[in-house]
Amino acid sequence: MIIITDAHVSKARDNHTAFFEMLAAIEKTDHSLIFLGDIFDLWIALPRYECDIHHDFSAWCRRQKTERTIGFVEGNHEFYLSKQRASVFSWCSNGAWWVDDGGTVFAHGDHVNRKDKNYLLFKKLVKNNVTKFLLQHMPYGPKFAESIKRGLKNTNKKFRIQIPYDEIKFFADSRFAEGIDTIFLGHFHQAYCYRNPESKKLFALPDWLSTQKVTLYRKSSGHVSSMPWTKLL
User: Fold this and answer.
1) Which long-range contacts (CB under 8 A, 24 or more apart) does 96-99 make?
2) Domains, the chain, ranges and CATH?
3) Fewest Cβ atoms closer than 10 Å to its Cβ: which of 60, 73, 178, 224?
4) What does 168-229 look like in DSSP terms, one character per residue?
5) Contact predicate 84/49, CB 8 Å
6) Rounded to an integer, what distance in angstroms lies between the CA atom of residue 60 and that of residue 112?
């Protein structure tokens, strides 16, 4: 299984070519694939808000899901995918986390830090049906979308400086107490592993944006490794 998180793909960042080259490389493997959110710098899955890179990605996933399982967990930079674009993927979740049949948790991670109250409030204000209706129908919706993008960058600046180890530990221990053995998180843009005394593990994964790394999870052995995507070739 290949896991990719926090790519923040956009033409403004000029990282879209490398991202699609990576997808072409993945086609040559037999791995299933999970995207852990914030794959695009902003993806509002509504007419007027998607551009060619969103369409190209959707088309690739639609084709490839006949060859492999492709899952998507919405991050804080994706909006309405689970309702508007569910058919593109094998599965798509807008929940705080998703659990597979083996009891492994996959989460973007933006719900983990309970102290980041400004962001959590901001998310409630913008990820709801009222905001969706406004984006669909008001003429100045694209300008509103830009304000959402700015808000995502500004609501939690101090919480992006350092990874919240105590909050991650609390989240992990809570899931472990529910019977979960393995957790994968994105969002924090740093690689980190927490292991409890029973050897249950949480992996915070490196962001693709700054490292162009993907994570390979061999479920049969439990082996987890992160590497530049070019190593897939």
Assistant:
1) 97/73, 97/175, 97/183, 98/71, 98/73, 99/180
2) 2-114+157-232 (3.60.21.50)
3) 178
4) HHHHHHHHHHTT--EEEE-SS-S-EEEE-TT--EEEEPPPHHHH-EEEEEETTTTEEEEEEG
5) no
6) 31
